[in-house]
Fold LacI family transcriptional regulator.
Amino acid sequence: MADVARLAGVSSQTVSRVANGQPGVVATTRDQVLAAMRELGYRPNSAARALKRGEFHTIGVILFTLATIGNSRTVEAIAMEAARRKYATTLMPVAAPTQDAVSGAFSRLEELAVDGIIVIMEVHLLNDAAITLPPGVHVVVVDSDAGDRYTVVDTDQASGAGQATEHLLGLGHHTVWHIAGPQESFASERRTAAWRSTLEDAGRPVPPLLRGDWSAESGYRAGLALADEPGCTAVFVANDQMALGVLRAMHEKGRAVPGEVSVVGFDDLPDSGAFTPPLTTIHQDFAEVGRRCVDAVLRQIHTRPGVAREHGTTLVPTRLVVRDSTAAPPATAPATTPRRRAARR
């Protein structure tokens, strides 16, 4: 900085104001300083400035897995929005959903000097108070039911599942079968509860629940079982990947989609419209989830000390995307009460 000041013929304080984008420097002087910086190859020490101001323009992200489409697309959306707001992101995967692992991730991110943290938790740990987050940290939680204690941003899981079930009932199907995600997933259980309550509110029988693990292979296995159910004419699947497996199973079993069985997914993956047939599904706005997460954590970062933090849950709306995998049931479809079976896992 002293070298730049000598070359530009100004004080070090003036160089500092120009480097930090502060007002109070006339245009000609600012141009002199910038020219001197370029000539000398000077770049301000952003780390030193961050330490001085206590702001590092970095957001940490803690999550348990990137294997699921929802998590990976949420992380992508957070990173894109953070970059647009001139913030970097630091990803911290957690190997096991335990208190020690989560506390360790928070400690590591604090060592890396992040301004705030977004936690993507797809299990019920926060809901059951099995895990608590460190106090005094700027934190936003995704995919949880802990809005009474934290700032939470989530997709409107219940509305999406309700729309999917109502769509199938509206086409004339007597009831709707469901292939759920893992039981430990908050999103899966939210969708399952909404599917069940929608059927009950309509006075329709609730078929036995089948479960998968979000993968196409697990959807395929559940689809093979449903293909043998003569009364199954409509299936709501908890994500598009499992729905892809269901489409394969129905094809192999000779049950036409949507001629004999209608299928609805959840996520609206970029490839969902290229399935055979193109998949009717529930659209999740992952970009909006990312925007709201970053906006919420930045509001905390910029809130004056001593001001109470806002708790509560922000739900991002979902919408039904109708394609070619759903239709009215065949005229010969039996309107029978589904026979009971053990829930598959």
